Request: fold
Amino acid sequence: MPEQQVAALLAGGQIHQALTAAAEGLAQQPDNAELCNLAGICAALLGYGMQAEQLWQQAIALVPHAQAHFNLGLLYANANRLDEAERHYRCAIELEPGNAPAHYNLAILLASRQCDEEAANCYRQAIQADPANAAAHANLGVLLAGRQQVEAAEQYYRQALVLDPEHAAAHLGLGVLLAQRNQLAEAEQHYRQAIALHPQSAEAHTNLGLLLEKLQQSEAAEQCHRTALSCNAGHAEIHSNLANLLAAQRREEEAEQHYRRALELKPDDAIICSNSGALLATLKRDEQAEQLFRQAIALSPGYALAHLNLAQLLLSQGRYREGWVHYEARYAAALPDQVPFPSHLSCPQWRGESLAGKSLLVWTEQGLGDEIQFCRFLPQLRSQCARITLVCKMPLVPLLETLAGVDEVLAYEAGADPGTHDYWTPPLSLPLHCATTLENIPDQLPYLHALPERIERWAPRLPQSGFRVGLVWQGNIRHSNDSERSLPGLETLAPLWSIPGLSLVGLQKDARGTAASADLPLLELGEELADLADTAAVVAQLDLLISVDSAVAHLAGALGKPCWLLLPAHKTDWRWLNARGDTPWYPGVMRLFRQQQRGDWTPLIEQVRQALLREMAG
Reply:
């Protein structure tokens, strides 16, 4: 039979001969639908698309031909005529419900149109008809992963790899899932297997690079990102990923080049705009940074990190009215350092409504220093409402009990029920709802007080003569900028040791770096301080505190004690504003010493030494 002869020639790769034989057969049997279908396949393989289309249409006109419908679907899909392709795939399935390739290709088409649920069903039908279809398993895994059905996605990825251990896309998809679960060792194995199978996969190289960054293998991560770029130099996200890594390594010039290229390739990407703005902000190019942050927000109004980046820029410039508004984004779940939201509280969050006759719960957030700084708003709020309950971290409880206007201070416990209240608020939202500007910051000092019994307990331990100076040289190690704002070690302050008449008291807890030598003129009390009330009792009896950006500095300011604050050049915290030597948050008692060159504390410590000599000379 002619169709058997054509099929045999096709199977043997003799396509021209097969097409000739099909044409001869059709001359004798013009109503042979199967010959029309086979001739169409020959024409398509030879690149004669229009002829193939006519032959398959002819086959369908003769009989309901499932394979001809499927072949037309492929032809139209490749020509991006998706509506026609979908119609023919569906016709093929209607005529032949067990047509696995038709289900599979329809699923691909539907997925490209974001019809994910129907696409997933089509992949399942393809798998039911052909359980050995590894690609259908892998693609279904991709769809389910995108819909956050990660357990089911993992099962399909793993089954795809059972069927085809060399399925690169399944290795890659499974690696992404495992990395999201922080199963980094297994994820790395699958990324590397995907690369071995598909060395030109930019996605596999860049995902491996991101994973190696998490493992603190920066050099290897950079190489992965650069390899990804060599595979796809026109991919904006790869440029952005490399820029992120370079920025973290202080290679700002290179980072800026890659951010710029990423924005050229994808100017409507909010994440790239925001990250590029963050780099420019650290370089103190505020105007350009602000423009990029606002561009990111315009592109994606709900992008929390762009709002937070803009907030910190505005607040550092003293543009408080708008800055506080954007700072509310800190509770967004998508943030890398999201502030935990107390979703278990039964009362609504206070948004500035009248508090007359109402009770207000102030719920803990962020660090100890934040709570000390912003509890200052509660005395003025107490005059507006019936009752205030303050929840804070345990080390703060005795100290914050000295704050006027608070009816009850409770130690924070996750999930604890603080009782019935009309509203709750985080302390760092108080400036927003109190319409705080630089001109009206509550600045009456002191607003916290050392406990008399604690003062009495600590008095005998302190130096009984000399100019008593407390030292705190390191902050919270968990702070994202700790490596910049903490001193490398106590030895950085060594120029102060030789000042005559100085009595030094160490208040540092959990010190890192070189330990104090036995002959160092320093009384170390840090590890003996049980809570902030103990620290307050010591600070209250000092002449001066010298501190890096830490909770103890805020404590000294709240107590109205002189404090000299040592600030880093890189990512100086927004609350200290720009270029000022004082702060409106602690007027008259806090002096700011600013590092001029990133990482170089030597000139700043010399400036402190000279200032101390002048202070002690009267």
